[in-house]
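Batch 3, record 17
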Amino acid sequence: MQRTTRLQGKKRQKTPWSAYLYVFPMVVLMGVFIYYPIFVNFYYTLYNFSAFSLSHTFVGLGNIRLLLSDPVIATALRNNIFYCLISIGFQVLLALGLAFILEEPLYRRFSTVFRTTYFIPVLISMTIVAMLFMQILSPRGLLNSFLSLFGGKVRTGWLGRSSSAIFCAIFMSQWHSMGYTTMLFIVDIQKIPTELLEAAEIDGANRIQRFLKIVVPLVREMFFVVMVTTVSGAFLVFNDVYVLTRGGPGNSSTTLAVYMYDMAFTQDRMGYASTIAILMFVICVILALTQRRLLRTGKG
Amino acid sequence: MKKVTCSVKKKKIGFPKFNSSRNQWTLGTVIILFFLLVYFVLVIYPLIWMILSSLKTEREFFRNIWGFPAEFQWENYSKAWSMGISDYFLNSVFVTACTIATTISIAVLAAFGLVLYDFKGKNLILLLGMGGMMFSAQVALIPLYRVIQNLRIHDTYWAMILPYTAFRMSISLLLIRSYFLSIPREMYESGVIDGCSSLGILYHIYLPMSKPILLTVSILIAYYSWNEFLFSIIFIDSRALKTIPSGLMVFRDALNTDYALLFAGLTISALPMVLLFILMQKQFIRGLSSGAVKG
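Prediction for the assembled complex:
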């Protein structure tokens, strides 16, 4: 793509001013709403301030020191890591397997129905999904009345126990998003020439061999794309937890983003909230770089 | 006679055992089918339950959590609609439409400038334009809140439309630009010969040719702004301006325990995207999968 741009460039007329006019709105918009806030965020961590006053107190690295010793940050990080690991299991590994199965000729006659149904939750806003799951998981909810069918009256408050609340959010999130990554893998698997899979079969490769030796290497790039989005999504997760549990009970199911929101907009500690934002930023950059490196060495 | 020879030939040439192992049902494949069905039920049942519950009375919902409603309470829907859902719904439509319009216009202009001209700093601007994908809203939230306050657009529609536009800009630019690159430059030159201004060329030649990608991008933007939650709870305070995702929070808090009504509200809110998907499945899938090319 770059080469054609360069070739075309040579034929170009010299009218740079209108060119600047064309890109101007984009530059201003992204400058004001993305780049300026990102950079200023670093500066904000050095201060303590509240949303509606102009007074800033310089605290230097105080916020970072606070961050490192804050037990809630540890809980949040732990929850984000759970989120990440379980999401990799479902939305990356299982979804890839599922996509392969749905593309197998054996299941083809059902696969349209399955594929479309699995995709429906993706279309529904997380707020709606979370409110639905609050009713499913409530003490007198659908899940408990289902479990009661197997004997006894189950009245567990799944969202009210600090041991289970975060896992409710995590599994709800898998319910919501697995269809999306499955769809991405299906689109990619459909690009594989069928001759390749048929040839492998003639050579005697069974289903598992076809999956591991042909499909997996060929969808490798999509695999990494999905991996990056899933992992960074897991460290940024907000909506799911905020609507379902608000981070509670206590702070047991909080995540970095929910805790940041709490600090900023309920406790009005804007400087500290910015510091949490920086922590998320650093985590995402490190993960993205590691994954890029993994992808590159994987290619070579 | 002819027919007979033909069929004989086919039998000899064809691969007799060709699809056999892929098309045979074994214990393993049946177990897999069983799990596909379980997942199918896990996905569809909560949604059916939501719809069924939305048609019950409040008492019925608690007494009979599994069953069908004795009588379909359709008025739950009109009640929910008039209890605020209508406002949120229209706000969502308005904000989504505006976001699509602003994002597409700005991205089209920028893509056109970047594809057709050479100028100083072009690569930097391209990098800035694409780089937005690496940053998520959460990371810039607090300064962004300040920016919104200082621009005096806090608690207005602009407080959603402008940030949404900014955060959807990179992916839209990426898709539109690569589409523009595939349009032969002769189209531009023929426009110049006909005495068209560059804006005219964009409007009369490039835009009509780019309809498919513009549709894809619009779906991608609509999906995002219809479901966006974080900005809309932070930048909007007035109930009258809230979109569906944030408005539902208010709706729920106002209801106490009338869950049937809540479910009616949820169903109404979920419907538009599902309908859009059913109507435009192909474009939808194309939009979301090209939106994922992030890495």
